[in-house]
What we know:
Elements: H1 3-11, H2 14-28, E1 32-33, H3 34-40, H4 47-57, E2 68-74, E3 80-86, E4 89-90, H5 92-99
Antiparallel strand pairs: 1-4, 2-3
Amino acid sequence: MDAEFWQAFEGLDTEALRAQTLALLEARGQALTLADLAQALPPGEHDLETLAQWLAWAGGDDAQGLEPQQIELRGADGRAWRFTVPRVEVTEQALREMDA
């Protein structure tokens, strides 16, 4: 990762993202894939950083060999971006355990 990614990643309010993600998971009552999350909580300016954070919360370290999933997002400039990520789910329990 280059310096631009890390600068943008540091600009992401991870606590606000965690709170929004947790509220969505509680409302839906089920685990959600990264594509589900991106549709419900469009990442906006921090798209790559948000996907990276959700992937980490989903336990993405063990994601090798999992079925891929494509996510299409629109940047602030209106340009379409397609991301290929492992098909993993973020759970309410995983986010709650972060508080413990």
